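Sat 14:20. Reprocessing the chain from the morning session after the first attempt stalled halfway. Input below, unchanged.
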Amino acid sequence: MIVVALFMFLFIAFAAGFLYFWGINPGEVTVFLTSEQSFTLPTAIMLICVLLLGLLLGNSVHIFSAITHSMKHWRGGRKQKKAEEIGTVYRSGVGHLLSGDLKKARTLLKKVIDRDPRRVDGFLALASVAEQEGNLPEAIDLLQTARKLDPKGVEILFKLAATFQSAGRREEAMGIYKELLAGDAENRKAMRALRDLQIEVSSYQEALALQKRIVKATSTGPRAEKEKQTFLQLRYEVARKLLDKGEADKVVDACREMVKQDASFTPARVTLGDAYRQLNRDADAIKVYQEGYKALKKSIFLARLEDVYIGAEDPAALLSFYRSRMQEDSGDLLLKLYLGRLCLRLEMVDEGLQHLIDLETTGIDFTKLHLLLAEAHRRRNKIDQAVDEYQKALGIDSHLTLGFVCEECNSRFDAWQGRCPECKAWDSLVLPERKQIQDAKLAEKLKPIPHGQREA
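Finished this time. C-alpha cells:
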C-alpha cells in the first residue's frame, strides 16, 4: 500500500514537473535522420526522450554487468567446489601413500590427475607410488609429464634426478642436476648430489672442481669441516690417478700439500711414499713411511716399509728400525706384532716367538696371531703346540699376511687401499685387530712363559 502511494506521488510529481517544463519551453526541435528524413518534437518531449533513453541504456549496462558477475561467480563457485573435491581426494591418496596402502593410493591419485590433468602435485605423488612399487620407468614418465607442466619446478627436477639415479641412469641424473645449477648456481643440494654422482663414476677431477665451489659456499656452519675433508679426499683420488699414469712428480707436490693440510690423513702419506718409490727415491719413501707410523701408528706404514726393505734385500735395516722403535715405546703392541712376524720371516724364530707370546699374554686373541704362533712352533719342531695353534687359526695363507678391514662396513681385504671398494669410505682400512691391540697394555714385568704352560 505504501509502495503504491509512493509510486503515485512520484508519478504526480513527474507529471507536474513535465507540464511545468513544457509550459516554459514551448518551442519545437527538428531532428534529421538523413538529408531527406526528419522528425519534429516539442523541446520538452525531446529532452524527456533523451533522459529516458539514457536511463534505459544505463540500466541495460547495469543489468548486463550483474548477469555477467553472477555467471562468473557461479562458474567460480563450481570451479572452487571441484578444486576442493579434488583436493580432498588428493589428500586421501597421499594419506594412503604414507600409510603404505599403495593400491588405494594409486586409485585415488589416478582419479586426481584424471579430473585435473594439470595438477602437478598429483603426478608427483603418483610417481612416488610407482617408485615404491618398484616401477621406476612409470615413475620417470609421470615426472616427465609434471616437468612439462612446470619446466622450472625445483621439486620436480630433484625428484626426477633422484629417480634417474635409482634406475641407474646416472648420465641423465647428472644432466638434471646441471640444469638445476644452470638456474641456481649456488644450489648446494644440487652441487652435492652432482658431486656424489661424479664420484660414483670416478670422475674425480670434475668432482674436485665442483667441491671447490661447495667449500666456498659452505665456509661456515656445521658442514664446513666435512666439506673440507671431502675436498681433501677428492684431491687424494686425483693424485692417485696421476700416480697410476706415472706422473709421480705432480703426485709428490699434491700429497705434500695434503699432509700439511691434514697430517692425520693416512692416504696422502702412503701415496707420497709410493710416489717417491716410483721416482726411485727409496730413501725419501722410507722416511715418509717411518714418519707416518710414528705419527699415526697405522699398520700400512709398517707393511710399506717391509716392501721397501725386503725388496732391496736389506731386512737388517728394517729390523734395526723396529728394534729402535721398541726401545722408544716398549708398549707398542702393533709394532711388536710386526717385529715378531719379521723375525719369523728372517728365521729368527726364538725372538719372534717371544714377541708373539708377549702379545698373547695381554689377552689378545685373533686368528693371525694363532697362525704366527703355530708357524713359530712348527719351525722349532714343537709339532703338538703348532697343531694346537693351527686348529685355532682360520684363513691360513702362505705369506702370513695380516690383512685389513674397513672400519665403516667391516669388509675384509688382503691389500690396503686408500678407499674401501665396498662402502667407498676413505681412510677406513685398518688392521682387523687394531682396536684390540691399541686398548691392550703390556704387563709391567713380563717373564718368558714356556708355551706349553700357558693354559695351566
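Residues 176 and 182 are 10 Å apart (CA to CA).
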